[in-house]
Structure formats: C-alpha cells, structure tokens
Amino acid sequence: MKKNSKRNNNLAVSSIDLNSAGIEKGKNESQNNFVELLPLEVTLKIFSQLDVRSLCRASVTCRSWNHAIRNNDSLWRPHCLTLRAVCQREIDDDVESGYSWRVILLRNYQKSKVKCDWLSGRYSNICSSVSLPEKIMCPMDADTWGEILEAELER
C-alpha cells in the first residue's frame, strides 16, 4: 500500500513540476506551438503522417498550422496520388492545368468517393434517380459517366 502511494506522490510531483515549468515558459503562446519552434522539414514530416481528414482539421487549428499545411504541396500530393487510382484522368487533367495538389484534392476528393462506389457496384440495384442518395452525389463530367456506364454494362 505504501509503495503505491509513494508512486502516486512521485507522479503528482512530476506533473506539478511539469505544469509549473510550462507556466513559466508558456508566457508566449508561440513557445507552445511546435510549428514555430521546429525546422520546417520536421514539421512537414509530422504533418505528412496525417490522413486527409486529420490534415484538414489540423489546418484550421491556428494560423501558423494553416500556413504550414495549406502552402505545402508535398503534404497534399500523396493523398492525390491515392485518389488517382479511381480518378486517374481527372487528376492528370488537373495536374496539366497547373492546379496545386491541395486544389486537385479539393476538386476530386468527393468525386473519387462517389465514382468508387459506382464502379464497385454499390448503386447497381437502384431503379430510379429518386433512389440515389442525394447527399453524397456530386457533379461529374461525361467521360466519368462513360466509365461508370461501361462498368455497369460489364456487370
């Protein structure tokens, strides 16, 4: 029993020491912001470990995070290349048009989800347009619809 209470006391002291050290050092808010403290390469390595949703959420955390994430194509490119498996033509057209990787992802993310569902046969049993889930649909060009139609005809 004494051993456990001694361990708890040590934890309490450690957390108090850490908290008081944080208060002394934390007078300036930017001191707690790793984006401003670490070299850009390290910051980008950290952000590169995030999935698309987490990356988008991190970009709205604060201005410095937004600036680091929004303005760095190396963070968005891998996610676009993942989408390219479904939207190859669309991604390649956007690259040729000179869009940034972030904008390419914004333009094609929802489309890739819908297209993947269509190509996998998720909507094959739908009898009319009224039955389509309106929330997840998005505009697609004629070539994309052509790909979907070909997949449906092969089924």
UniProtKB/TrEMBL annotation:
Residues in coiled coil: none
Stored Pfam families: F-box-like
Keyword Cytoplasm: yes
Example of a GO cellular component annotation carried by this entry: cytoplasm
Domain F-box, chain residue ranges per copy: 32-79
InterPro entries listed in its UniProt record: F-box-like_dom_sf, F-box_dom
Protein's GO biological process: protein ubiquitination; SCF-dependent proteasomal ubiquitin-dependent protein catabolic process
Pathway connected to this protein: Protein modification; protein ubiquitination
Superkingdom of this protein's organism: Eukaryota
Localisation per UniProt entry: Cytoplasm
Keywords, sorted A to Z: Cytoplasm, Ubl conjugation pathway
Subunit structure: Part of the SCF (SKP1-CUL1-F-box) E3 ubiquitin-protein ligase complex SCF(FBXO9) composed of CUL1, SKP1, RBX1 and FBXO9. Interacts with TTI1 and TELO2; when TTI1 and TELO2 are phosphorylated by CK2.
Family annotation (PANTHER family): F-BOX ONLY PROTEIN 48, F-BOX ONLY PROTEIN 48-RELATED
Protein name as it appears in the record: F-box only protein
Taxonomy of the source species: Eukaryota, Metazoa, Chordata, Craniata, Vertebrata
Gene that encodes the chain: Fbxo48
